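Q: I'm writing a short methods note and want an example of a predicted protein-small molecule complex. Could you take the sequence and the SMILES for magnesium ion and return the bound structure as tokens? Please keep the output block clean; save any remarks for afterwards.
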Amino acid sequence: MSIINRIREGLKKTREILFTDIRDLIKRKNVENISPDFWDQLEEKLIIADVGVNITKHIVNILKNATKKKDQSSIWQEIEKELVSLLEIPYIYDQKYFPLRNPLEGYPLVIMVVGVNGTGKTSFIAKLANYYKTMGLSVILGAGDTYRSAAIEQLSHWAEKLSIPIVKQNIGADSAAVAYDTVNSAISKNIDIAIIDTAGRMHNKNNLIQELQKIQRVIKKHHVEMPQEKILILDATYGQNSIQQTKVFAEAINITSVCVTKMDTSFKAGFVFSITSTLGVPIKFITFGEKLEDIQPFNPRDFVRNLLED
Ligand SMILES: Nc1nc2c(ncn2[C@@H]2O[C@H](COP(=O)(O)OP(=O)(O)O)[C@@H](O)[C@H]2O)c(=O)[nH]1
Ligand SMILES: [Mg+2]
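A: Understood, no commentary inside the block.
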């Protein structure tokens, strides 16, 4: 299956739940006679798909305004433009590391991955490593989730499968030390990218915050501008709740971007339309399956087109 088809397949549920009505709307010959019921039902659907009340009202207004345009293609363009603008936060990237950026000459790009357990952190790291490996870059992993032994094993499995190096210690080890060693190894071996896994839960919230801050502090000993990227993983199956659950991570460290996982299984993927306005950072990746290739840099325009086009 081509990449485009994989994404469409992955977004099938969102396409059906959220966008069937909107697609129909665009195709209507007679947009003047849309009944108030239509708008009520659409609003209800958007709310069920976890778009969120404010964004739902906003989207319905966009659609109402768009249907005032006379021809189909201007309606289409208007809807597309407005939906894209909800998803978009412009950012700078390097062609070499697209969609990420490494402003530090002569240093590896260090990526810290954070998020609640079970959201898909470790799977995302494997997919991301594979993505960059395919682009010809070298990658090293750091098993920074030392809180659960399964987490270390899982990451080691992926490192082996991808034939890339990994830095790990035993369960209960100091995760900041693992992170430090990972970056150290990347620098001394001239590796392009270091990706560091972290714990998603600890005894309590304060432990977790302190742990993440410590990892960050220790990485900074290599260079104050590291880690250059801090990616928060949001699980699409939790919808709006996934944003609520992750406020603690945003509190602990300055998140630089978001990856939304499990787009393929979710009926609640509508919440992606409220991520950028709630968290104030761009969505840079989505994952839509369990295979290594089920990852894509997030492109708001392609995303909206995949949902709106037949
Ligand atoms: N269908 C689907 N499953 C996923 C995706 N990403 C992760 N998973 C599954 O979600 C579960 C938790 O993933 P894991 O990476 O261990 O989460 P972590 O605890 O945050 O590290 C695993 O069973 C993964 O296979 C995705 O994009 N689609
Ligand atoms: Mg994990």
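A: Remarks, as requested: The first strand starts at residue 109 and ends at 114. The chain has two domains: 3-87, 109-299.
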